[in-house]
Amino acid sequence: KEKIEFTTEQQALMRxxxxxxxxxxxxxxxxxxxxxxxxxxxxNFLLLxxxxxxxxxxxxxxxxxxxxxxxxxxxxxxxxxxxxAVEAMFLRSAQAxxxxxxxxxxxxxxxxxxxxxxxxEFIKPMFNFYKSIGELHMVLEEQxxxxxxxxxxxxxxxxxxxxxxxxxxxxxxxxxxxxxxxHHPQEPQYFARLLGRLTELRTLSHYHxxxxxxxxVNNHKFTPLLCEIWDVQ
Length: 233
Ligand SMILES: O=C(c1ccccc1)c1ccc(-c2nc3ccccc3n2[C@H](C(=O)NC2CCCCC2)C2CCCCC2)cc1
Hints:
Layout: H1 8-23, H2 29-36, H3 41-64, H4 74-98, H5 105-114, H6 120-134, H7 140-151, H8 162-183, H9 190-206, H10 208-213, H11 224-230
Helix pairs in contact: 1-7, 3-4, 4-6, 4-7, 4-9, 6-9, 7-8
The structure holds the ligand O=C(c1ccccc1)c1ccc(-c2nc3ccccc3n2[C@H](C(=O)NC2CCCCC2)C2CCCCC2)cc1.
């Protein structure tokens, strides 16, 4: 059995990232709202744009707490945020769906999402992703580290100093690998499975602009922040 040792730096990194992940999350009221009422397609679209807008704001605050992020080139910081915002949104959505809820609530929530106005062709890949995240039973630290790794992806469009991002990402990858052995000792491939989800996530975000266009509403109105981040309008 491999003895897991964390260096002092790794312990500090884990704490900073976990605390920031906990602190910067929108109140899970989207699930409460969805469980309360059945909304029209228009209302659901508006709800998504509101939730996604506040989630981008929260993501910006979260990245400020990633050690080294603010020392990156300023334009690279923007490129990393822009490149990871949709993926971070789907990760948060997956966690919102897979959260422990009273009996029957998850089914109601899934039903409401199915009926929200999202076109059928995108429902399947989206729920496949949510299910594959749920099966991993990630602990909170793993969720926080996985989100950080997504943000610190060196090969996003327009990133100039990729090696600087790689160095930051490597530290977080090393820490996540150890956390996986610690929390899932019986599953030696767990770390690899976790990283495999990032490939699925990138595919989802690749189609996102097209997915939005297919949402059955007349005019797709977005906030200025979403127009920036989502490449829409
Ligand atoms: O961009 C999306 C898309 C996908 C396919 C086609 C077109 C757009 C696309 C993206 C997230 C979700 C999505 N999956 C969810 C899983 C569980 C709970 C809510 C979820 N949502 C939406 C949501 O508000 N997500 C929040 C979660 C916190 C972080 C910010 C985002 C609502 C919006 C009201 C209607 C029903 C779903 C649903 C959809």
